[in-house]
Amino acid sequence: MFSNQSQVALWHDANLIHYSPPPPFHPACAFPEYPFQSSCFLSDHNPVYEAVRNLFKLMRLDASHQETPGWNPLQEWIKPGDIVVIKPNLVRHVHGLGLSLDSLITHPSVIRVVMDYVYIALQGHGTLIVGDAPLQTTDFDILVRNSGLGALADFYRHYAHLDFHLTDFRREHSVKDQRGRIVQRFDLAGDPRGYRAVNLGSSSLLKPCIDQYKNFRVTNYDPEEMMTHHNPMINEYLISQSVLDADVVINLPKLKTHRKGGITAALKNLVGINGSKDWLTHHTCGSVVDGGDEYLHPSLRKRWLTLLNERLDVCRNPFWREIYYLCKRTIAVTRHLIPYPDVYFEGSWYGNDTLWRMVLDLNRILLYADRQGTIQPTSQRKLIILVDALLAGEGEGPLEPTPKPCGLLVAGTHPVFVDDVCARVMGFDPSRIPLINQGLDVFGLRDKLQGLSLCSNDKNWSTINQLMQHHLGFVPSAGWAGQIERTV
Protein backbone atom coordinates (compact mmCIF):
# COMPACT_ATOMS: atom_id res chain seq x y z
CA MET A 1 0.00 0.00 0.00
CA PHE A 2 1.02 3.64 -0.43
CA SER A 3 -0.26 5.40 2.67
CA ASN A 4 3.13 6.64 3.92
CA GLN A 5 3.51 10.37 3.23
CA SER A 6 7.26 9.84 2.78
CA GLN A 7 6.72 7.84 -0.40
CA VAL A 8 6.75 9.28 -3.92
CA ALA A 9 6.32 7.29 -7.13
CA LEU A 10 7.67 8.17 -10.58
CA TRP A 11 6.60 6.53 -13.82
CA HIS A 12 8.88 7.45 -16.71
CA ASP A 13 8.60 6.69 -20.40
CA ALA A 14 10.69 9.10 -22.46
CA ASN A 15 8.70 8.22 -25.58
CA LEU A 16 5.35 9.11 -24.05
CA ILE A 17 5.20 12.83 -24.76
CA HIS A 18 1.95 13.14 -26.73
CA TYR A 19 -1.68 13.06 -25.66
CA SER A 20 -2.93 11.19 -28.69
CA PRO A 21 -6.45 9.79 -28.14
CA PRO A 22 -9.49 11.92 -29.02
CA PRO A 23 -11.96 12.85 -26.29
CA PRO A 24 -13.42 11.36 -24.18
CA PHE A 25 -10.07 9.52 -24.00
CA HIS A 26 -11.16 5.88 -23.79
CA PRO A 27 -8.50 3.22 -23.11
CA ALA A 28 -7.21 1.16 -26.01
CA CYS A 29 -8.35 -2.11 -24.46
CA ALA A 30 -10.90 -3.28 -21.94
CA PHE A 31 -8.72 -3.88 -18.89
CA PRO A 32 -10.29 -6.39 -16.48
CA GLU A 33 -11.37 -3.65 -14.06
CA TYR A 34 -12.51 -1.15 -16.74
CA PRO A 35 -15.97 0.07 -15.66
CA PHE A 36 -17.32 0.73 -19.19
CA GLN A 37 -17.01 -2.66 -20.86
CA SER A 38 -18.77 -1.90 -24.14
CA SER A 39 -16.46 -2.03 -27.16
CA CYS A 40 -17.94 1.34 -28.14
CA PHE A 41 -16.00 2.86 -25.25
CA LEU A 42 -12.50 2.02 -26.48
CA SER A 43 -9.90 3.95 -28.47
CA ASP A 44 -7.47 2.72 -31.08
CA HIS A 45 -4.52 4.00 -29.10
CA ASN A 46 -4.17 5.50 -25.61
CA PRO A 47 -0.76 5.09 -23.95
CA VAL A 48 -1.65 7.74 -21.36
CA TYR A 49 -4.35 5.53 -19.87
CA GLU A 50 -1.96 2.62 -19.62
CA ALA A 51 0.78 4.82 -18.12
CA VAL A 52 -1.43 5.99 -15.25
CA ARG A 53 -2.58 2.41 -14.74
CA ASN A 54 1.04 1.25 -14.64
CA LEU A 55 1.83 3.97 -12.10
CA PHE A 56 -0.88 2.60 -9.81
CA LYS A 57 0.51 -0.90 -10.25
CA LEU A 58 4.01 0.38 -9.48
CA MET A 59 2.63 1.84 -6.25
CA ARG A 60 1.26 -1.63 -5.40
CA LEU A 61 -2.23 -0.28 -4.87
CA ASP A 62 -4.62 -3.13 -4.05
CA ALA A 63 -1.78 -5.39 -5.17
CA SER A 64 -3.57 -8.67 -4.48
CA HIS A 65 -6.28 -7.88 -7.04
CA GLN A 66 -4.17 -6.48 -9.89
CA GLU A 67 -5.19 -7.75 -13.34
CA THR A 68 -8.55 -8.96 -12.04
CA PRO A 69 -12.05 -7.47 -12.46
CA GLY A 70 -12.00 -6.62 -8.74
CA TRP A 71 -8.92 -4.39 -8.86
CA ASN A 72 -9.73 -1.18 -6.98
CA PRO A 73 -6.47 0.77 -6.64
CA LEU A 74 -7.96 3.82 -4.88
CA GLN A 75 -9.92 1.91 -2.25
CA GLU A 76 -7.32 2.81 0.37
CA TRP A 77 -8.57 6.40 0.17
CA ILE A 78 -12.05 6.32 -1.39
CA LYS A 79 -15.11 4.54 -0.01
CA PRO A 80 -18.64 4.28 -1.46
CA GLY A 81 -20.65 7.35 -0.52
CA ASP A 82 -17.65 9.69 -0.40
CA ILE A 83 -17.49 13.16 -1.90
CA VAL A 84 -14.40 13.23 -4.12
CA VAL A 85 -13.00 16.42 -5.65
CA ILE A 86 -10.52 16.18 -8.53
CA LYS A 87 -8.54 19.44 -8.75
CA PRO A 88 -6.70 19.76 -12.10
CA ASN A 89 -4.75 22.79 -13.30
CA LEU A 90 -7.04 24.54 -15.79
CA VAL A 91 -5.24 27.84 -15.63
CA ARG A 92 -6.23 29.39 -18.96
CA HIS A 93 -8.09 28.71 -22.22
CA VAL A 94 -5.20 29.89 -24.42
CA HIS A 95 -1.46 29.40 -24.25
CA GLY A 96 0.35 32.71 -23.84
CA LEU A 97 2.62 31.93 -26.79
CA GLY A 98 -0.20 30.77 -29.04
CA LEU A 99 0.73 27.09 -28.65
CA SER A 100 -1.56 24.18 -27.82
CA LEU A 101 -2.92 23.69 -24.33
CA ASP A 102 -0.93 20.47 -23.85
CA SER A 103 1.92 22.07 -21.89
CA LEU A 104 -0.36 24.53 -20.10
CA ILE A 105 -3.09 22.52 -18.37
CA THR A 106 -3.53 19.12 -16.81
CA HIS A 107 -4.45 17.08 -19.85
CA PRO A 108 -7.99 15.64 -19.77
CA SER A 109 -6.67 12.25 -20.88
CA VAL A 110 -4.92 12.04 -17.49
CA ILE A 111 -8.04 13.30 -15.73
CA ARG A 112 -10.09 10.59 -17.49
CA VAL A 113 -8.05 7.73 -16.06
CA VAL A 114 -8.30 9.08 -12.53
CA MET A 115 -12.04 9.60 -12.95
CA ASP A 116 -12.48 5.96 -13.98
CA TYR A 117 -10.67 4.66 -10.91
CA VAL A 118 -12.62 7.02 -8.65
CA TYR A 119 -15.78 5.63 -10.27
CA ILE A 120 -14.64 2.10 -9.49
CA ALA A 121 -13.92 3.00 -5.87
CA LEU A 122 -17.27 4.76 -5.33
CA GLN A 123 -19.17 1.72 -6.66
CA GLY A 124 -22.06 3.87 -7.83
CA HIS A 125 -22.55 5.67 -4.52
CA GLY A 126 -21.09 9.10 -3.93
CA THR A 127 -20.24 12.39 -5.62
CA LEU A 128 -17.45 13.20 -8.06
CA ILE A 129 -16.60 16.87 -8.68
CA VAL A 130 -13.98 18.07 -11.16
CA GLY A 131 -13.33 21.72 -10.41
CA ASP A 132 -10.86 24.59 -10.53
CA ALA A 133 -10.72 28.37 -10.31
CA PRO A 134 -8.63 29.33 -13.36
CA LEU A 135 -7.21 32.74 -14.22
CA GLN A 136 -9.79 35.52 -14.02
CA THR A 137 -9.73 36.12 -17.80
CA THR A 138 -10.16 32.45 -18.67
CA ASP A 139 -13.20 31.59 -20.78
CA PHE A 140 -14.20 28.36 -19.05
CA ASP A 141 -16.57 27.24 -21.81
CA ILE A 142 -13.89 27.61 -24.47
CA LEU A 143 -11.38 25.86 -22.23
CA VAL A 144 -13.51 22.77 -21.62
CA ARG A 145 -14.58 22.60 -25.27
CA ASN A 146 -11.13 22.99 -26.85
CA SER A 147 -9.32 20.76 -24.37
CA GLY A 148 -11.75 17.86 -24.67
CA LEU A 149 -12.74 18.13 -21.02
CA GLY A 150 -16.28 19.02 -22.07
CA ALA A 151 -16.64 15.82 -24.10
CA LEU A 152 -15.29 13.86 -21.16
CA ALA A 153 -17.81 15.48 -18.81
CA ASP A 154 -20.65 14.73 -21.26
CA PHE A 155 -19.60 11.08 -21.39
CA TYR A 156 -19.70 10.80 -17.62
CA ARG A 157 -23.05 12.52 -17.37
CA HIS A 158 -24.54 10.05 -19.85
CA TYR A 159 -22.89 6.77 -18.93
CA ALA A 160 -21.62 6.91 -15.35
CA HIS A 161 -24.15 6.06 -12.66
CA LEU A 162 -22.83 8.72 -10.35
CA ASP A 163 -23.51 12.22 -9.03
CA PHE A 164 -21.00 14.05 -11.27
CA HIS A 165 -20.23 17.77 -11.65
CA LEU A 166 -17.74 19.84 -13.66
CA THR A 167 -17.46 23.14 -11.82
CA ASP A 168 -15.84 26.53 -12.35
CA PHE A 169 -15.01 27.58 -8.78
CA ARG A 170 -14.61 31.27 -9.67
CA ARG A 171 -17.11 33.95 -8.68
CA GLU A 172 -15.97 36.40 -11.37
CA HIS A 173 -14.81 36.43 -14.99
CA SER A 174 -12.92 39.36 -16.54
CA VAL A 175 -12.44 40.44 -20.14
CA LYS A 176 -9.36 42.28 -21.42
CA ASP A 177 -9.03 44.46 -24.50
CA GLN A 178 -6.22 44.17 -27.06
CA ARG A 179 -4.01 46.38 -24.88
CA GLY A 180 -4.29 43.96 -21.98
CA ARG A 181 -6.61 46.20 -19.95
CA ILE A 182 -9.58 44.76 -18.09
CA VAL A 183 -12.70 46.33 -19.60
CA GLN A 184 -15.49 44.11 -18.23
CA ARG A 185 -16.17 41.96 -15.18
CA PHE A 186 -18.99 39.43 -14.92
CA ASP A 187 -20.35 37.60 -11.91
CA LEU A 188 -20.33 33.82 -12.22
CA ALA A 189 -22.51 31.20 -10.57
CA GLY A 190 -19.43 29.67 -8.95
CA ASP A 191 -19.52 26.66 -6.68
CA PRO A 192 -23.13 25.45 -6.29
CA ARG A 193 -22.27 24.38 -2.73
CA GLY A 194 -21.18 27.92 -1.94
CA TYR A 195 -18.07 29.22 -0.21
CA ARG A 196 -16.70 29.74 3.24
CA ALA A 197 -14.31 32.43 4.45
CA VAL A 198 -11.57 30.57 6.30
CA ASN A 199 -9.76 32.95 8.63
CA LEU A 200 -6.29 31.86 9.72
CA GLY A 201 -5.81 35.03 11.72
CA SER A 202 -2.45 35.24 13.45
CA SER A 203 -1.61 31.66 12.44
CA SER A 204 -1.42 32.76 8.79
CA LEU A 205 2.07 32.67 7.32
CA LEU A 206 1.44 36.28 6.26
CA LYS A 207 1.49 37.37 9.90
CA PRO A 208 5.28 38.09 10.07
CA CYS A 209 4.92 40.64 7.26
CA ILE A 210 1.42 41.91 8.06
CA ASP A 211 2.76 45.43 8.63
CA GLN A 212 2.97 45.57 4.83
CA TYR A 213 -0.67 44.56 4.35
CA LYS A 214 -1.54 47.78 2.51
CA ASN A 215 0.97 46.75 -0.14
CA PHE A 216 -0.26 43.17 -0.66
CA ARG A 217 -1.22 42.73 -4.31
CA VAL A 218 -2.60 40.42 -6.95
CA THR A 219 -2.39 41.75 -10.51
CA ASN A 220 -5.56 43.22 -12.07
CA TYR A 221 -7.53 43.55 -8.83
CA ASP A 222 -8.49 46.38 -6.50
CA PRO A 223 -5.97 46.57 -3.60
CA GLU A 224 -8.71 47.96 -1.34
CA GLU A 225 -10.53 44.63 -1.58
CA MET A 226 -7.34 42.75 -0.73
CA MET A 227 -6.94 44.81 2.45
CA THR A 228 -10.37 43.78 3.71
CA HIS A 229 -9.24 40.15 3.79
CA HIS A 230 -5.61 40.49 4.85
CA ASN A 231 -4.84 42.99 7.60
CA PRO A 232 -3.69 42.99 11.24
CA MET A 233 -7.07 41.59 12.34
CA ILE A 234 -7.78 38.82 9.79
CA ASN A 235 -6.08 36.70 7.15
CA GLU A 236 -8.78 34.87 5.26
CA TYR A 237 -9.37 32.94 2.04
CA LEU A 238 -12.62 32.21 0.22
CA ILE A 239 -12.63 28.42 -0.04
CA SER A 240 -14.94 26.41 -2.23
CA GLN A 241 -17.41 24.52 -0.05
CA SER A 242 -17.11 21.56 -2.42
CA VAL A 243 -13.49 21.26 -1.32
CA LEU A 244 -14.32 21.62 2.37
CA ASP A 245 -17.12 19.03 2.03
CA ALA A 246 -14.81 16.57 0.29
CA ASP A 247 -13.80 13.33 1.94
CA VAL A 248 -11.02 12.98 -0.63
CA VAL A 249 -9.22 15.53 -2.80
CA ILE A 250 -7.19 14.34 -5.78
CA ASN A 251 -4.70 17.03 -6.75
CA LEU A 252 -3.79 16.78 -10.47
CA PRO A 253 -1.30 19.56 -11.27
CA LYS A 254 0.65 20.21 -14.45
CA LEU A 255 4.40 20.44 -13.88
CA LYS A 256 5.70 23.85 -14.99
CA THR A 257 8.12 26.57 -14.04
CA HIS A 258 6.52 29.59 -12.41
CA ARG A 259 7.55 33.24 -12.55
CA LYS A 260 6.58 34.02 -8.97
CA GLY A 261 7.00 30.65 -7.27
CA GLY A 262 9.91 28.99 -9.09
CA ILE A 263 7.86 25.92 -9.94
CA THR A 264 4.19 25.02 -9.93
CA ALA A 265 3.15 21.49 -9.06
CA ALA A 266 1.17 20.10 -6.12
CA LEU A 267 1.50 23.04 -3.72
CA LYS A 268 0.79 25.90 -6.12
CA ASN A 269 -2.13 24.07 -7.76
CA LEU A 270 -4.23 24.69 -4.65
CA VAL A 271 -4.62 28.37 -5.56
CA GLY A 272 -7.59 27.04 -7.54
CA ILE A 273 -9.60 26.09 -4.42
CA ASN A 274 -10.11 29.81 -3.67
CA GLY A 275 -13.12 31.43 -5.32
CA SER A 276 -12.05 35.10 -5.49
CA LYS A 277 -8.62 36.09 -6.76
CA ASP A 278 -8.55 39.35 -4.78
CA TRP A 279 -8.23 37.29 -1.59
CA LEU A 280 -4.86 35.93 -2.78
CA THR A 281 -1.60 37.73 -1.98
CA HIS A 282 0.80 37.23 -4.89
CA HIS A 283 3.43 39.85 -4.09
CA THR A 284 4.06 42.96 -2.00
CA CYS A 285 4.44 46.35 -3.66
CA GLY A 286 7.77 48.10 -3.72
CA SER A 287 11.43 47.20 -3.66
CA VAL A 288 13.16 45.04 -1.08
CA VAL A 289 14.57 48.21 0.49
CA ASP A 290 11.01 49.51 0.91
CA GLY A 291 9.85 46.29 2.55
CA GLY A 292 8.31 44.90 -0.62
CA ASP A 293 9.23 42.09 -3.01
CA GLU A 294 7.86 43.42 -6.29
CA TYR A 295 11.41 44.11 -7.48
CA LEU A 296 14.90 44.32 -6.02
CA HIS A 297 16.09 47.95 -6.15
CA PRO A 298 14.08 51.16 -5.52
CA SER A 299 12.72 52.65 -8.74
CA LEU A 300 10.41 55.63 -9.00
CA ARG A 301 9.47 54.65 -12.56
CA LYS A 302 8.46 51.16 -11.51
CA ARG A 303 6.46 52.59 -8.65
CA TRP A 304 4.59 54.85 -11.04
CA LEU A 305 3.96 51.95 -13.41
CA THR A 306 2.43 49.98 -10.55
CA LEU A 307 0.19 52.91 -9.58
CA LEU A 308 -0.93 53.43 -13.17
CA ASN A 309 -1.71 49.75 -13.63
CA GLU A 310 -3.81 49.82 -10.48
CA ARG A 311 -5.67 52.88 -11.73
CA LEU A 312 -6.36 51.09 -15.01
CA ASP A 313 -7.73 48.09 -13.11
CA VAL A 314 -10.39 50.09 -11.27
CA CYS A 315 -11.12 53.07 -13.54
CA ARG A 316 -14.29 52.87 -15.67
CA ASN A 317 -14.05 56.29 -17.33
CA PRO A 318 -12.81 55.84 -20.95
CA PHE A 319 -11.09 59.24 -21.03
CA TRP A 320 -9.07 58.68 -17.88
CA ARG A 321 -8.32 55.11 -18.85
CA GLU A 322 -6.69 56.39 -22.01
CA ILE A 323 -4.70 59.01 -20.08
CA TYR A 324 -3.44 56.40 -17.62
CA TYR A 325 -2.53 54.08 -20.46
CA LEU A 326 -0.57 56.74 -22.35
CA CYS A 327 1.30 57.70 -19.17
CA LYS A 328 2.15 54.06 -18.59
CA ARG A 329 3.45 53.66 -22.15
CA THR A 330 5.54 56.82 -21.88
CA ILE A 331 7.25 55.66 -18.70
CA ALA A 332 7.82 52.17 -20.12
CA VAL A 333 9.57 53.61 -23.20
CA THR A 334 12.18 55.33 -21.03
CA ARG A 335 13.79 51.96 -20.26
CA HIS A 336 15.39 52.10 -23.72
CA LEU A 337 17.23 55.29 -22.72
CA ILE A 338 17.82 54.61 -19.03
CA PRO A 339 17.58 50.94 -18.00
CA TYR A 340 15.74 50.08 -14.84
CA PRO A 341 17.99 49.26 -11.86
CA ASP A 342 16.88 45.61 -12.15
CA VAL A 343 14.79 43.51 -14.55
CA TYR A 344 12.15 42.26 -12.09
CA PHE A 345 8.45 43.17 -12.14
CA GLU A 346 5.29 42.16 -10.27
CA GLY A 347 7.12 39.86 -7.88
CA SER A 348 8.16 37.60 -10.75
CA TRP A 349 11.57 36.68 -9.36
CA TYR A 350 13.40 34.62 -6.78
CA GLY A 351 12.99 37.34 -4.11
CA ASN A 352 9.23 36.96 -3.91
CA ASP A 353 8.57 36.49 -0.18
CA THR A 354 4.76 36.69 -0.36
CA LEU A 355 3.47 34.02 -2.73
CA TRP A 356 4.82 31.03 -0.82
CA ARG A 357 3.06 32.23 2.34
CA MET A 358 -0.32 32.38 0.62
CA VAL A 359 0.16 29.01 -1.10
CA LEU A 360 1.18 27.23 2.10
CA ASP A 361 -1.78 28.82 3.90
CA LEU A 362 -4.08 27.24 1.30
CA ASN A 363 -2.40 23.86 1.67
CA ARG A 364 -2.88 24.00 5.43
CA ILE A 365 -6.55 24.81 4.89
CA LEU A 366 -7.01 21.90 2.50
CA LEU A 367 -5.51 19.45 4.97
CA TYR A 368 -6.75 20.78 8.31
CA ALA A 369 -9.91 22.90 7.85
CA ASP A 370 -13.14 21.09 8.66
CA ARG A 371 -16.36 21.60 6.72
CA GLN A 372 -17.12 24.75 8.71
CA GLY A 373 -13.69 26.18 7.88
CA THR A 374 -12.22 25.72 11.35
CA ILE A 375 -8.62 24.56 11.52
CA GLN A 376 -8.27 21.29 13.39
CA PRO A 377 -5.12 19.60 14.78
CA THR A 378 -5.53 16.53 12.55
CA SER A 379 -6.07 16.06 8.84
CA GLN A 380 -9.72 16.45 7.81
CA ARG A 381 -9.65 14.79 4.40
CA LYS A 382 -7.55 12.40 2.40
CA LEU A 383 -5.24 13.68 -0.30
CA ILE A 384 -3.85 11.98 -3.38
CA ILE A 385 -1.48 13.76 -5.78
CA LEU A 386 -0.71 12.85 -9.39
CA VAL A 387 1.42 15.28 -11.40
CA ASP A 388 1.01 15.41 -15.16
CA ALA A 389 4.52 15.88 -16.53
CA LEU A 390 4.16 13.87 -19.74
CA LEU A 391 4.51 17.16 -21.57
CA ALA A 392 5.58 19.73 -18.97
CA GLY A 393 6.42 23.43 -19.27
CA GLU A 394 9.68 25.34 -18.79
CA GLY A 395 10.77 28.96 -19.17
CA GLU A 396 8.08 31.57 -18.62
CA GLY A 397 5.46 29.48 -16.89
CA PRO A 398 2.78 29.27 -15.78
CA LEU A 399 1.04 31.09 -18.67
CA GLU A 400 3.70 31.11 -21.40
CA PRO A 401 5.64 27.88 -20.84
CA THR A 402 7.84 26.37 -23.51
CA PRO A 403 6.78 22.72 -23.93
CA LYS A 404 9.17 20.32 -22.19
CA PRO A 405 8.73 16.67 -23.24
CA CYS A 406 9.31 14.49 -20.15
CA GLY A 407 7.11 11.38 -20.35
CA LEU A 408 6.75 11.55 -16.57
CA LEU A 409 4.04 11.01 -13.97
CA VAL A 410 4.70 11.69 -10.28
CA ALA A 411 2.44 10.55 -7.44
CA GLY A 412 2.38 10.85 -3.66
CA THR A 413 0.27 11.89 -0.70
CA HIS A 414 2.06 14.96 0.66
CA PRO A 415 2.43 18.04 -1.56
CA VAL A 416 5.76 19.19 -0.09
CA PHE A 417 7.47 15.85 -0.75
CA VAL A 418 5.94 15.60 -4.22
CA ASP A 419 7.14 19.11 -5.09
CA ASP A 420 10.59 18.41 -3.65
CA VAL A 421 10.93 15.41 -5.96
CA CYS A 422 9.55 17.37 -8.92
CA ALA A 423 12.05 20.19 -8.37
CA ARG A 424 14.94 17.72 -8.31
CA VAL A 425 13.73 16.03 -11.49
CA MET A 426 13.55 19.46 -13.13
CA GLY A 427 17.18 20.11 -12.18
CA PHE A 428 16.40 22.66 -9.46
CA ASP A 429 17.57 22.82 -5.87
CA PRO A 430 14.43 22.66 -3.70
CA SER A 431 16.26 24.31 -0.80
CA ARG A 432 16.40 27.48 -2.95
CA ILE A 433 12.66 27.48 -3.68
CA PRO A 434 10.88 29.07 -0.68
CA LEU A 435 7.60 27.33 -1.44
CA ILE A 436 9.25 23.93 -0.87
CA ASN A 437 11.94 24.84 1.62
CA GLN A 438 9.55 26.70 3.92
CA GLY A 439 6.95 23.99 3.43
CA LEU A 440 9.24 21.44 5.06
CA ASP A 441 9.17 23.47 8.27
CA VAL A 442 5.50 24.46 8.12
CA PHE A 443 4.45 20.81 7.94
CA GLY A 444 7.25 19.49 10.20
CA LEU A 445 8.83 17.39 7.46
CA ARG A 446 12.44 18.53 7.38
CA ASP A 447 13.70 15.67 9.56
CA LYS A 448 11.81 13.19 7.38
CA LEU A 449 13.26 14.36 4.08
CA GLN A 450 16.27 12.06 4.19
CA GLY A 451 13.92 9.14 4.74
CA LEU A 452 11.95 9.94 1.59
CA SER A 453 11.31 6.72 -0.30
CA LEU A 454 11.07 6.63 -4.08
CA CYS A 455 9.65 3.92 -6.28
CA SER A 456 10.18 4.19 -10.01
CA ASN A 457 10.27 2.10 -13.14
CA ASP A 458 13.39 4.09 -14.11
CA LYS A 459 16.49 2.66 -12.43
CA ASN A 460 18.09 6.14 -12.54
CA TRP A 461 15.44 7.49 -10.19
CA SER A 462 15.46 5.12 -7.24
CA THR A 463 16.93 7.52 -4.67
CA ILE A 464 17.02 11.23 -3.96
CA ASN A 465 20.71 11.38 -4.87
CA GLN A 466 20.01 9.79 -8.24
CA LEU A 467 17.45 12.48 -8.99
CA MET A 468 20.25 15.02 -8.56
CA GLN A 469 22.47 13.15 -11.01
CA HIS A 470 19.89 12.37 -13.73
CA HIS A 471 17.63 15.41 -13.84
CA LEU A 472 15.80 16.65 -16.95
CA GLY A 473 17.42 20.09 -17.12
CA PHE A 474 14.45 22.47 -17.13
CA VAL A 475 15.06 26.11 -18.07
CA PRO A 476 13.78 28.31 -15.21
CA SER A 477 11.79 31.48 -15.59
CA ALA A 478 14.04 34.50 -16.27
CA GLY A 479 13.50 35.89 -12.78
CA TRP A 480 14.85 32.66 -11.25
CA ALA A 481 17.72 31.99 -13.67
CA GLY A 482 21.03 31.47 -11.97
CA GLN A 483 19.38 31.06 -8.56
CA ILE A 484 17.79 27.61 -8.39
CA GLU A 485 19.62 25.43 -10.91
CA ARG A 486 21.69 22.61 -9.46
CA THR A 487 25.39 23.41 -9.34
CA VAL A 488 26.59 19.86 -8.52
Q: What does the model show?
A:
By secondary structure, the protein is an alpha/beta fold. The protein has a domain at 77-151 and 164-298 and 341-406 and 428-443: Rossmann fold (3-Layer(aba) Sandwich), CATH 3.40.50. The chain contains twelve helices and 16 strands. The protein has helices at 47-58, 108-122, 140-147, 149-159, 223-229, 241-245, 300-314, 318-333, 355-368, 415-426, 434-442, 464-469, and strands spanning 7-12, 83-88, 127-132, 163-168, 172-176, 182-187, 195-199, 216-217, 236-240, 248-252, 254-258, 262-264, 283-284, 382-396, 400-412, 453-456. The strands form four sheets. Strands 1, 2, 3, 4, 10, 11, 12, 14, 15 and 16 form a ten-stranded mixed β-sheet that branches. A hairpin with a 3-residue loop joins β11 (254-258) and β12. It is globular and about 65 Å long.
Q: Give me the number of helical elements.
A: 12
The main β sheet shows up as: 10 strands, mixed
Which residue ranges are poorly predicted, with pLDDT under 50 across at least 5 consecutive positions? Answer: none
Distance between the termini: 34 Å
Silhouette? globular
The count of β-strands is 16
Q: Share of helix among residues?
A: 25-40%
At the third CATH level, what is the topology name of the domain at 77-151 and 164-298 and 341-406 and 428-443? Answer: Rossmann fold
Average of pLDDT? 95
CATH class placement of the domain at 77-151 and 164-298 and 341-406 and 428-443: Alpha Beta
Order of helices and strands: EHEHEHHEEEEEHEHEEEEHHHEEHHEH
